[in-house]
Design goal:
Blueprint (H helix, E strand, L loop, with lengths): L3 E6 L3 H16 L18 E8 L9 H4 L22 E2 L29 H8 L3 E4 L6 H14 L2 E4 L9 H10 L2 E3 L9 H14 L3 E11 L2 H5 L7 H12 L11 E8 L6 E11 L5 E11 L2 H20 L3 E2 L1 H7 L9 H13 L5
Parallel strand pairs: 1-2, 1-4, 2-3, 4-5, 5-6, 6-11, 7-8
Antiparallel strand pairs: 7-9, 9-10
């Protein structure tokens, strides 16, 4: 199979885990942690990163294989043997990518923008031969995320929106990708076994077993830059919508905002990339007897989404091969919190299986 040429906007923890994973699975032949070792003929080893963009002074101008381990990245290192990629991280536009309060925290845990002029991102995408662009902008970076979506459209590359800015699920943006003949996947990546998927499974369990959900909450905290970034609460608007609707969409009787709370709660630096989640479900069963679940989940946040993005990349490549354009509803429903169309997770997986086999267009 030909290499899948990928560009990444935002060389943070998620990008680090993704790139480590590509080389780990390519070199070892291991399949643990992969939902699809083979995705329509494409393997993780078929993915090649050809361009990278960031704004941090410790990453811009550095080889990609060094930048993924530079501060403030703090995710676990599970594969150090990254070969020379030939890719140098280029300066992207800052726009709203850096929250003002970042400067109040030590350099090793926060962003420090480089004093360098941004490159022409569209030109870089074209010259690199990229086929797919992944948006890994920080939460709340609405302008920056839309900038990279426009760049993908102008450069003629497929777009994967891993962040909670509503692009692929926005009909006006979806139309733009359709008109350009480009596939798009989004919005807001749903981790392999993360807070959202666990909360969704519990919600579906209550619904399927005839239990009336009375109220529920999900709180999350961690120590990476994403959680630090989210201390500025106004940056959380789309994130809260994305996470809440991912859960509420599975309820026959939708809970109002008073009875459902889903969202991050705080930043604890020493946790680094470890994310702690607490979920509480309160319901009524037979005879209105109370049923309560209290659950704690602890995960490395960034590796938890790596395999999901590897699947999204390969789905986008298949769509390019087949000339499919616009939002890919099956893989978006399976891998994203706020897709264009919500489906139960088991159904979304069946849709992806059919898409891989060519039995479903998108």
């Amino acid at each position: 199979m030909k290499k899948i040429k990928v560009a990444i906007a935002g060389i943070g923890n998620c990008a680090s885990s993704l790139i480590q994973g590509i080389y780990y699975y390519s070199e070892t032949g291991d399949t643990v942690g992969l939902m699809y070792p083979d995705f329509g003929g494409y393997k993780p080893s078929d993915i090649e990163i050809v361009a990278a963009f960031d704004i941090d002074s410790r990453k811009v101008g550095k080889p990609l294989e060094e930048a993924i381990f530079a501060p403030p990245n703090c995710t676990m290192t599970f594969w150090e043997k990254i070969p020379k990629t030939g890719v140098v991280v280029k300066m992207g536009p800052i726009l709203d990518g850096v929250a003002a309060h970042m400067y109040e925290y030590p350099e090793d845990i926060s962003f420090r923008p480089a004093d360098v002029e941004p490159v022409d991102v569209v030109k870089e995408l074209k010259e690199s031969g990229a086929e797919i662009l992944i948006n890994y902008m920080p939460v709340g970076s609405e302008e920056a995320s839309r900038f990279y979506a426009r760049a993908a459209l102008e450069a003629g590359v497929a777009f994967i929106n891993a962040m909670p800015t509503f692009i692929v699920s926005d009909p006006s943006w979806a139309k733009k990708f359709e008109e350009k003949g480009l596939p798009a996947i989004g919005d807001d990546v749903k981790s392999q076994v993360g807070a959202t998927i666990v909360h969704r499974v519990l919600t579906k369990l209550f619904e399927d077993r005839g239990v009336r959900i009375k109220r529920t909450y999900q709180t999350n905290f961690g120590g990476n830059t994403d959680f630090l970034n989210m201390l500025e609460r106004k940056r959380l608007a789309t994130k809260k919508i994305s996470k809440t609707e991912a859960v509420r969409s599975l309820m026959e009787k939708k809970l109002d905002d008073y009875h459902i709370y889903v969202g991050p709660s705080d930043f604890i630096p020493w946790l680094k990339d470890n994310k702690i989640c607490y979920i509480r479900m309160e319901g009524e069963g037979f005879g209105h007897h109370p049923i309560i679940i209290d659950l704690k989940l602890s995960v490395e946040d960034s590796p938890n989404s790596g395999g999901i993005i590897i699947d999204a990349i390969r789905a986008a490549k298949i769509a390019l091969d087949r000339g499919v354009k616009g939002p890919l509803t099956s893989i978006s429903a399976f891998t994203m919190k706020h897709p264009p169309e919500q489906y139960p997770d088991w159904e979304a997986k069946e849709m992806v299986d059919k898409f891989i086999k060519g039995e479903r267009e998108r």
